[in-house]
Structures are given as C-alpha cells and as structure tokens.
Amino acid sequence: MAIRFPAISHAKQILRRSNLxxxxxxxxxxxxxxxVYVGESQKKRFIVPISLLNQPSFQELLRKSEExxxxxxxxxxxxxxxxxxxFIDLTSRLR
Length: 95
Description:
By secondary structure, the protein is of the alpha+beta class. Helices cover 39% and strands 16% of the residues.
C-alpha cells in the first residue's frame, strides 16, 4: 500500500512539464539531480539533488516558479525567481 503526498506529486508534475530532459544541457546532470537556474537578472545554474523536492520550502520555490514562468523555462532547467544568496542559504539548511 502506497502513501501519496500531494505536494510531491505536484513537484513531479512541474518537472514532467518542463523540458528539462529534452534539453541538450540536461545531459551533464548526474542521475538523482536536476538543474535549476537562480537569480534575479543574471541566472546562475545549480545542480541540486532531487531529494530537495520533498522539502516544503523548496516546493514553495517551485510554486513561485510556476506562477512566474508557467512551464516554459527557456534556460533548459527550472528557473527559480529568487536571489542567489537566498537560494544558497535555503538549500544549505535543507541538506
């Protein structure tokens, strides 16, 4: 018997809809990780473990990304609309 978590399935839905896998740049991302682009004006690429998808604070970032960009991420990875320093602070606390 499996237990379903709605927030995790929503995060998976966002990943499925983005064209991350189809993009050529995604080939250098190791299995178990995903590429995200973070920054306000200039985007910096980060490779993060997919285990972050289980974290409520990271899921909130994904919701904000969906609100701002929809499912069209021209960089090839998910674009997260927050300051780079805030993202680094958040992810370092989650690991």
